[in-house]
Design a protein that fits this description.
Layout (H helix, E strand, L loop, with lengths): L12 E8 L6 H11 E8 L10 E2 L5 H8 L4 E4 L9 H22 L4 E7 L23 H20 L2 E7 L1 E2 L6 H4 L1 H4 L2 E2 L1 H13 L5 E6 L11 H7 L7 H7 L2
Helix pairs in contact: 1-7, 2-3, 3-4
């Protein structure tokens, strides 16, 4: 399977991108194609990333570390977070609330033009399983983690309205690598699957689409049932998934 998100001979884009959480569960799958696409990608993580000697190491609660990383950045790609359900005060508030505020505020102070924010299906996952969720539907989180991501989306709205920073919130579906046993085991996951290649493509579209203003979109690959409406991603970003559950099943009978 060709898993490259780029067309052969695609030109490098003259942008400087700060990628927080670049060594995380999703970040480690999309960092390489992003580095191939953009002039400069600064990887920021709480610990060194194997194979990335230039990783900027710091915590989201450390405003000085974020400020040093943010200078001269065009786009903040903000994936760093406590990335699943956890005790609210002890583990979620620091990175997902205080850290989110720090990242957005320092981006504004440093003249960043656009924020691309990793949100999640968990912001709306409590709707019935047979229902296609629309971006216009009110938040209905399945977890406190999902609720913190709603906070990030609303903060993005505030920074766009008050400071003019463009914002794209990516409500990422069930991100799984191609060999994930969960795609065979859990039926609901198959209807929200997002592949590594499609995730990288979605992120690139969010970075490059012109005049997005403030936008929220869902991100999945092609699934048996469109649990999360891809219409906004198609219309606003020009995103079209390349991978599908059906093709994956054929290649792995």
């Amino acid at each position: 399977m060709d898993t490259s998100p780029l067309e052969p001979g695609a030109d490098r884009v003259e942008q400087t991108v700060l990628f927080t959480g670049a060594g995380g569960r999703i970040g480690k799958h999309i960092l390489a194609p992003l580095k191939a696409r953009y002039r400069t990608v600064r990887a920021f993580d709480r610990q060194p990333i194997p194979g990335e000697p230039d990783t900027l190491v710091g915590e989201l609660e450390d405003a000085a570390a974020l400020r040093a990383a943010m200078e001269g950045v065009d786009t903040l790609l903000h994936f760093a977070a406590q990335a699943d359900e956890a005790p609210f005060i002890e583990q979620l508030v620091g990175p997902n609330v205080i850290g989110c505020y720090n990242a957005f505020q320092i981006a504004q102070e440093c003249g960043v033009k656009r924020i691309v924010f990793a949100s999640t299906v968990q912001t709306v996952g409590a709707y019935p399983q047979e229902y296609t969720i629309q971006i216009a539907d009110p938040p209905r989180p399945v977890s406190l983690y999902g609720a913190t991501k709603v906070f990030g989306e609303v903060m993005g709205r505030w920074y766009y309205d008050h400071h003019g920073i463009e914002f794209v919130g990516l409500r990422i579906g069930g991100f799984q690598p191609y060999d994930s046993p969960g795609l065979r085991k859990y039926g609901g996951l198959r209807n929200i699957w997002l592949s590594p290649r499609d995730c990288a493509t979605l992120v690139m579209r969010a970075i490059e689409a012109p005049d997005v203003g403030y936008a929220l979109v869902f991100g999945t690959s092609r699934t048996p049932f469109e649990r999360l409406s891809l219409t906004p991603a198609r219309e606003l970003l020009g995103y079209e998934p390349q991978d599908s559950i059906a093709d994956l099943d054929e290649q792995n009978p």
